[in-house]
Write a structure and sequence with these properties.
Helix 4 links the parallel strand 4 and strand 5. This protein starts with a strand and ends with a strand. The protein has a single domain, classed as Dihydrofolate Reductase, subunit A, CATH 3.40.430.10. It contains 6 helices and 9 strands. Strands 5-4-3-2-6-1-7-9-8 form a 9-stranded mixed sheet, sandwiched between helices. By secondary structure, the protein is an alpha/beta fold. The structure holds NADPH dihydro-nicotinamide-adenine-dinucleotide phosphate and ligand LIKH6CAM. The site of NADPH dihydro-nicotinamide-adenine-dinucleotide phosphate has 31 residues, from strand 1, strand 2, helix 2 and helix 6. InterPro entries: DHFR-like_dom_sf, Rib_reduct_arc, RibD_C, RibDG_C, Riboflavin_Biosynth_HTPR.
Length: 220
């Protein structure tokens, strides 16, 4: 399995504002790059915080990229995955549409009635007691043939993935704006590291739109 985290931050490292509403930090060129990365992936993963805040579709938008996928024998769209301990994903969320298959990764703490509702719309994976055990959840996804994984956020999930050592690459678009706010989400939130900080190796820097794309691999 290969896990790429992709996100866009303001120049001061924020994913969104303190209102946690979706903000278009990327411009046209970067959104096109994101669409290509989705098209090259077997699955696109987000945390339930992003589903609740943004109601994303997580589909490939460019039809020619979908046709390319079909030509190489892949499903028209990558699968979508929500990391959601207690089953907070609304049953009318766009990520549960029939545009692509969806997996919801739950913990044992998800109530039975919530599971039954979600099971009408998604494949359910259970891993972990109170919170999703990411190592076990990602192993279950791999067993389903999902090898090339793109994670789109948000900051809580990204931190946890670094914490358990699941991230292979980080691709970050840094836009030319300041969002600010101590309560605004950043690229990696969670409890934060105080030692054994994950180390990155810079592989690529490219000017895109009015910002920069930075690409790192994670040192093991
Ligand atoms: N600019 C960008 O590129 C992007 C911006 N965003 C922004 O980020 C914000 C959302 O980010 P955030 O609030 O951090 O939410 P996340 O999408 O990271 O979801 C976090 C939630 O996932 C659930 N979860 C379950 N298991 C785990 C685990 N092991 N580790 C971490 N989380 C787990 C938790 O909820 P529970 O306990 O209920 O399961 C947790 O609160 C929004 O404002 C959105 O607009 C999001 C994506 C990309
Ligand atoms: N790459 C990127 N740049 C931004 O500026 C963003 N705001 C995001 N957000 C992510 O994209 C998701 C929306 O996807 P759909 O267009 O609905 O398919 C959103 O939920 C964030 O994960 N990404």
């Amino acid at each position: 399995m290969h896990v790429v985290v992709n996100a866009a931050t303001s120049a001061d490292g924020k994913l969104s504002s303190r209102r946690r509403e979706q903000i278009a930090i990327s411009g046209e060129e970067d959104f096109a790059r994101v669409d290509r990365l989705r098209a090259d992936s077997d699955a696109v993963v987000v945390g339930v915080g992003t589903v609740v805040a943004d109601d994303p579709r997580l589909t490939v938008k460019d039809e020619s990229l979908c046709e390319d996928r079909l030509e190489r024998g892949a499903p028209e769209q990558p699968a979508r995955v929500v990391i959601d301990s207690k089953g907070r994903t609304p049953t009318d969320a766009a990520v549960l549409s029939d545009a692509a298959p969806t997996y919801v990764c739950l913990s044992e703490a998800a109530p039975v009635d919530t599971r039954m509702d979600l099971a009408d719309h998604a494949e359910l994976v259970t891993a972990g007691d109170d919170r999703v055990d990411l190592l076990r959840a990602f192993a279950a996804l791999q067993e389903q043939g999902l090898e090339r994984i793109m994670v789109e956020g948000g900051g809580e999930l990204i931190f946890s993935l670094f914490e358990v050592g699941l991230v292979d690459e980080l691709r970050l678009f840094v836009g030319s704006t300041i969002i600010g706010g101590r309560d605004a989400p950043t690229l990696a939130d969670g409890t934060g590291f105080v030692e054994e900080f994950p180390l990155l190796e810079l592989e690529r820097v490219e000017r895109l739109d009015d910002g920069a794309l930075l690409q790192w691999t994670v040192k093991s």
